[in-house]
Amino acid sequence: MAAQGFRPVYHPAGHDHALRGAVQELRTGRWVVMARLLDETSGWTAWTRRTQVLAAVAAGTDVVEAWRIEQPDSAAAGVMHARVSVERAVRAHRTGHPRTRELWQEAWTACLEAADRAPADPVPWVCRLALSVLDAQQRMEEHRAAPPAPMLPSGPWGLLAEAEKRDPYNREAHHRMLQFVYARRPGPLSEAVNYAQWAASMAPVGSALHALPLYVRVERYRRERGHERALDLHWVAEDAVRDADRAMDAWFLFCATDEASLLDLSHLAHGLYGALKFPDAARVFEALGPYWTPQPWAYRTDRPDERGPAEEVFLRARARCLGGPGARGGP
Fold first, then answer.
1. With 0-12 CB in 10 A as exposed, 13-18 as middle and 19+ as buried, what is 203?
2. Domain ranges of the chain
C-alpha cells in the first residue's frame, strides 16, 4: 500500500472490527452491542483493550449509566462504570477542572466496587493505576510503596502487583505506571528510562512490554526539541537502535499483529524508520495496514497538536520504507 494517493485511517478500534461496531453504537447512544461484545470477549488482553477504548468513547455520554440502570447486577457494567469514571477524572485533572477532586473520589469508589464485584478482573486495578497520576506528590500511601528493584522510584507498586497477579505483563498496567513516573518527577527522564528497561527485561518473548522503551525515547525527543541533542541523531544512537531491534525481535516477530495496539505498532515503525532500518519498518507498516496514529509522528513536526502535519510525516516515512530498496511489497 505504498501507492500514491493512499490516506491512512485513524480509528481507536483499529483491526478489531467487532469493537468498531460497538463504538459506532455507543456514539449513537446505545449500549446493547457493547454489552454483547464484552460478554463474548475472552482473554484479559482483549478485555483490557476493549474496555479502555469503549470508556474513552463513553466518557462523554450517559450510556454506561443507562446500562447499569437496566442491568444493575452486571459485573461488566460495573467495570465499565469504573473505566468511565476514571477517564472523566483524568480528563478533568488534565484540564485543571474544579471538579477534579470530586471526580477522583467517585472514580476511586467505582474502582473498589468493580474489584469487589469482579475479583479476578485486572481492569479495576489498572484503573486505580490510572488514577495515581492525580497524586503526583504521592500523598496517598498506596502511591509510595517501595520499588521491587534498585534504581526504580517509589510508587503504586502494590496496584501494579494486583493487576499483574490477575494478568501478568498487562500492557496497559505498565503504561499507566510509566505515566505515573512521568507525573511524579517532571524533568530528567532517568527514572522513566530505568522503569521501561526494567519492565521490558522482565517480559517474556511476545510481550508488548518490549516496546515500552520506545515510548520513553519519544518522550525524551519531545522534551528536548531545540535543546541539547542533534535531533536527527537521536534515533540512530546505539541505545535507540537497540531498543528498536529488541521490540522487533522480542515482540513484533511473535505477536498477532492484527490484535496488537496501533500505538505500539506506530512507535515501532517510527523507531525502526528513525534507526534507518527501512526493510524492518516496512514489515510494521504492512501490519498497520490502512491504520495509523498521530503519535509519535506529530513530535517530528512544528505543530504537534495538529493532525495534518503528523499525517504528512507518517506518509513520507511509510512511502520511504515500503518503496525503498529491500522493502517488501505492500499487501
1. buried
2. 1-186, 192-331
Rounded Cα distance between 319 and 303, Å, is 22
Helices (H), 132-168: 157-166
Question: Which of helix, strand or coil describes residue 13?
Answer: coil
The helix or strand, by DSSP H or E, that contains position 193, with its residue range, turns out to be helix 190-202
- Neighbouring residues of 159: CB distance < 8 A, sequence distance ≥ 6: 125, 128, 129, 132, 142
Q: Are 181 and 193 in contact (CB under 8 A)?
A: no
**pLDDT tens readout for residues 20-44:** 999 999 999 999 999 999 999 999 9
**Quick one: cell of 59?**
466518557
**How many beta carbons lie within 10 A of that of residue 233, not counting itself?**
10
Instruction: Please list the residues that pair with 145 across neighbouring strands.
Output: 155
First to last CA, the chain: 6
Residue 212: name the closest of 257, 188, 182, 256 by CA: 182
Q: What is the pLDDT of residue 1?
A: 44
Q: What DSSP string runs through 235-287?
A: TTSHHHHHHHHHHHHHTGGGS-GGGS-HHHHHHHHHHHHHTT-HHHHHHHHHH
| C-alpha closest to that of 277 among 255, 298, 252 | 252
